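re the bet — no i am not wrong, look at it urself. input seq straight from the record:
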Amino acid sequence: MPELPEVEALVGFLRDRTSGHQITSVALGQISALKTYAPPLDALVGRRVGDVVRHGKWLDVVAVPPDGADGGALHLVFHLARGGWLRWSEQAPTTPVRPRAGGGGGNRPTLALRVRFDDGGGFDLTEAGTRKRLAVYVVADPAEVPQVATLGVEPMSDAFTPQVLSELLARKNQQIKGLLRDQGAIAGIGNAYSDEILLVARTSPFRLTKTYGGADGPPSDDVVALHTAIRDVLREAVAASSGRPAAELKDAKRRGMRVHGRTGEPCPGWDGVPCGDTVHEVSFADRSLQYCPTCQTGGQVLADRRMSRLLR
């Protein structure tokens, strides 16, 4: 699933290629992907792209009326989910798109949406796998999308301070891995970058949030270290993704991972100095996490089962 750094890169990629261009066609390929019916998709046709912005992991193509026309902006807001991706073409296909109620199976991507512009370019939103979660909205205000309206603080913004993080940690007692992935708390971090952040912070993914302390006073040293790790990991990943074509972002993300997706490989260490241990994994029903025992759990290995706890 693309997370904040990849979505930020996609925003820049689309902004560079679409700003000022008129939308000439919007075609739905996967009926289940469209979550709104008013305004209709074809209300975007004839409008030009005023901007492309990000809300957490959501992309927002801002479509403004043609010069001299009345009306406010419409927003094409979409979330790529686990199996979705954006595929750009300098010359987008002009063949008719036939809407389908369901998608294909396996890893073969199916077309969910196609958008073309007046210069011939355009993008497809595609989704692989059988569980179709890619979501597309056409709204007058991004806040009309429930998941956007309830997003938490942007971790790269000035609003995300150590004090704000301390308050989030104290809000309820949960595993730190869960808090980092909670879009209603901190927007844009998913399974992959939460693994990376916890390695850099030298923290177990199962540490309970209320053990950080500092909610009633200045943020504790542990809170400051976690805040620094969040900002450093995301800043590094945004820089690595920036300017890359959409087609390269997935591979660039994989190459940049220290522990996520690297089960059985040597841990590179949180500071670039190999620690000598091996990356371990905890598997769940629909995902897994990776961590280093030496760097994060004092050498203890986490039980590889749902609702794991430190082995005693």
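see?? The first helix runs from residue 4 to 18. told u. also The chain has two domains: 4-149, 162-296. so pay up
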